[in-house]
Amino acid sequence: MDHKLLDILVCPVCKGRLQMNADKSGLICRADKLEYPIDDGIPIMLQAQAKRLDTDSGVNAS
Predict the structure, then answer these.
(1) What does the longest C-alpha to C-alpha distance in the chain come to?
(2) CATH, residue 16
(3) In angstroms, rounded to a whole number, what is the distance separating the alpha carbons of residues 29 and 10?
(4) How many domains does the chain have?
(5) Taking the model in full, what pTM does it have?
(6) Are 37 and 25 in contact (CB under 8 A)?
(7) d(Cα 36, Cα 26) in Å, to the nearest integer?
(8) Contact 16/31 with Cβ under 8 angstroms?
(9) Is residue 57 part of a domain?
(10) Does 32 map to a domain?
């Protein structure tokens, strides 16, 4: 994913900054503890599609 796009994308919930996850398969909002998936290079910025992150480790909760 282009870093210019990452600079302008914000979390749809809180409008905060997003970070790329370690395997570059999603964008993370630390404030809301959500991860938005990236599908074929396109970020899916829908709250309903976001995964809740584990509060301690920053990984997806099961």
Answers:
(1) 32
(2) 2.20.25.10
(3) 8
(4) 1
(5) 0.82
(6) yes
(7) 5
(8) yes
(9) no
(10) yes
Confidence band of 62 (pLDDT split at 50, 70, 90)? very low
Place of tokens 């809180």: 14
Give just the sign of the alpha carbon dihedral 55, 17, 46, 40: negative
Give the phi and the psi of residue 11 in degrees, each rounded to 5. -65, 130
d(CA 5, CA 27): 12
C-alpha 8/C-alpha 28 separation (Å) is 14
Tokens of 25: 């398969």
What would the pLDDT profile of 5-56 be if each residue is shown by its tens digit?
A: 889 999 999 999 999 999 999 999 999 999 999 999 999 999 999 999 986 5
Q: Which two tokens stand for residue 44?
A: 């899916």
Q: Is 30 exposed, middle or buried (0-12, 13-18, 19+ CB in 10 A)?
A: middle
